[in-house]
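question for whoever is on the cluster today: can someone run the full assembly for these? two chains, 872 residues total. i dont have access anymore since they changed the login thing
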Amino acid sequence: MHIVLPHDASLDGHLVDGVIGYLTLTTGLAFLAVLVFLLIAIVFHRERAGRTRAHHTHGNRPRDRALTFAVALVMFVAIDVTLVARTAGELSGRFWRYPDGDPNALRVEVTARQWSWTFRTAGPDGRFGTGDDVVTLGELDVPVGRPIYLKLRSRDVVHSLYLPSFRTKIDAIPGSTTRLWFQAQEAGRFEIGCAQHCGVSHYKMRGLLIARPEGEYHDWLARAETDSRLRGDAALPVAGEADGWDWETGR
Amino acid sequence: MTATDQSQGGDAGGDAGGPGGGPGDGLEEIPPEPAGFLRRHVFSTDHKVIGRQFLFLGLSFLAVGGVMAMLIRWQLARPGVPVPVVGGLLFGRAGGLISPAAYTALFTMHGTIMIFFAVTPILIGGFGNFCLPLLIGARDMAFPRLNLASFWTMAAATAVLTASFFVPLGPPQAGWTAYATLSTAIGAPGVGQTLWVVAIYLNGASSVMGAVNYITTVIRLRAPGMTYLRMPLTVWGFFLTSILNALFVPVLAAAMVLLFFDRVFGTQFFVAGTTVGAGGDPILYQHLFWLFGHPEVYILIIPAWGIVSDLLSFFARKPAFGYRVTVAALVGVVILSTVVYGHHMFTTGMSPLLGESFMVLTMIISVPTSLLFLNWLGTLWRGASRMTTPMLFCLGLVFTFGVGGLTGLYLADVVADMYLHDTYFVVGHFHLIMAAALLLASFAAIYFWFPKMFGRMMSEALGKWHFWPTFVSLNVVFMGQLLIGYAGMQRRLYDPSVYEFLRPLLPLNRFISRAAYVLGASQLIFVVNFFWSLFRGQKAPKNPWAVGTLEWTVASPPPHHNFDRIPVVVRGPHELGHPAARALGKDWLGQDEGPVRPSADNATDGSTDGSPPDGSTEGAA
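^ ran it for u. tokens below:
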């Protein structure tokens, strides 16, 4: 058995792995210390011939309390405080710094429904709800090296777009719009999952993320735009509204 | 030594801390035991009978929920293979195969049953009822008839829940959390989900009735001298849990009422989405659910903590280390538990400020929790531990709670949670707490109080044979789930092999399933021990464990009225290994045992410790 994290293809996934690794190390050490203490107490401080009486203390002396509080405080600072500081920096600097003003970012409308994902990009004119929108079902095509900025809605129940190879997920919720950004650092085919129980076929709500180098992506986009136009995809009722939904001002 | 002669020798000074309405001389009229069979055994108002009823109800549903877990594990280990033995009976129409709909119903009902209909009735209903009056020196609960109503409301809830299996469109399938809008008519049009809502509501009503009763009982019916800081930690556990229950179960009830309206009367509190063109808010449901749901975790674990804190002290033959710090830590957890629930909702796109606040608050709760944990270690240190069956289960809890608690940090961290949320890491984490730790505590409580409940000892040998496979296999199962989640597998997948990246996990899933079958089979040893001991076990003496709390001063099982004379409490619950007791040829002092040698008693305490051991300086707040 080989238990590993899924392959990381993202710009910031290593930060997530870093937090997990840090926690595994620190909590592992703390637990090891507890275990040693516990084992000594169980093995040596048990009732047997020659040890019939326990040491009588209520552990209420100032030094008992000081010791307990000191250990708890050291653990709190070493694990929790350090973690919060690190996490807060990563959130404000990376994960929650959405590429709102970034002209380079690829914007995608994601519509979740039982049990599939629909992805809509604006096409060459850069505007949603026009005839050159590119709509794909169950497949999200992205260029490598550009921020991908998703806004999500759900038509029916709560779903959760899960990108294991990008170490992230975000719920798609009926009645409101959520958002997520990530960036692919390498080309490849990566799985998209649904992480939130969304009904009897939840397990089948799989999608595919295909990351291509910029040049290949452009070729793909040109083909897909033609296909989409021929099929009249732009007129599809995405998320229920006849003309798609206004990506920028979604609630 | 009997309760009667102890209280005669009791120190009148202990009265100072007694509750105002308490029985004065302990000689007030003893209510006669009812005569009819129904009033004695079915519709009884006796807390001991009701406690046993809750225990049997909870254990029965534990078995049902356990079988469901085995079926879930079968599907994850052998997708597409008919279930052996019971497959034809349960899934006959599908040729013994678990269908996706059946699987969805299984994990929904497994969670619902285990949390609301197994652990809650066993620990809170069963041991809360049985222990509270006995441990504080009362003759019954403050409201015996409310207690009766509480049990029968729970029984009604189980009937409604059971009925949901036999309705058109099948049992509920929205998961135990029943997130809207999946739990509304959009995702669950059948009657089953409506019955689920009613069952949870009734279950909550039962819990609130119990909570009000427990709180009142602890405040009003403590024996003279039983100050708050002389209460066993078990009592503290049930007391604090009841406060949380009384405050937060009504929030769940509110969510259930709104969901019921949405389902039955066509309101749109939680209904949204363009499929139906409604303008409700499904996230509101999640807020209500977790505003209850996170305290619920503590509602269940705090009694377990209390019991284990007492039992570790009893079997280490040492006073509970840092009793007051432990009490303060429990109170701290109770307060903090009300403001951390948002960590269940990090992936709903909550505002950054909210997300970081919930993360910080969740981290802070690890301080009182580690104090509690360190005090357990302090209790064991330099003890003379007796490795009885209840002690083994308590030590098992210390271990699994350590792992379960620390893995909570991963999920409290917003960054790690982006990846781990809704994976098996979450499943492993909360099973280590809600399943492993709670089951170990429940078994510890059963082995410990069985003699008092039923008047017979359980077999120690079978108890140890029960402990080891249970302990090993449950750690394999739930730590295996942590690994599966670390590798990325989502929860609630009927067939993980739909995903390519999850296919290499099948061997590990099979291994976990085998451990789960061992865990299930090990419980048969417990069933045999339970029933054999019930009818053939050795007759239990009054105080088989040689400890000093009040329930062990009366006969096993106690008479209908518990105490012939209400005891007068003179010291704390953990006077074990007490130097003054040696003169009596034992190593413990009863809570109501008159001062043996007052001067020596005080002198010894003063020399070994900086503060009075029995909390006698503390008033009954």
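summary bc i know u wont read the tokens: DSSP finds three helices and ten strands in chain A. Residues 62-95 of chain A form the longest helix (34 residues).
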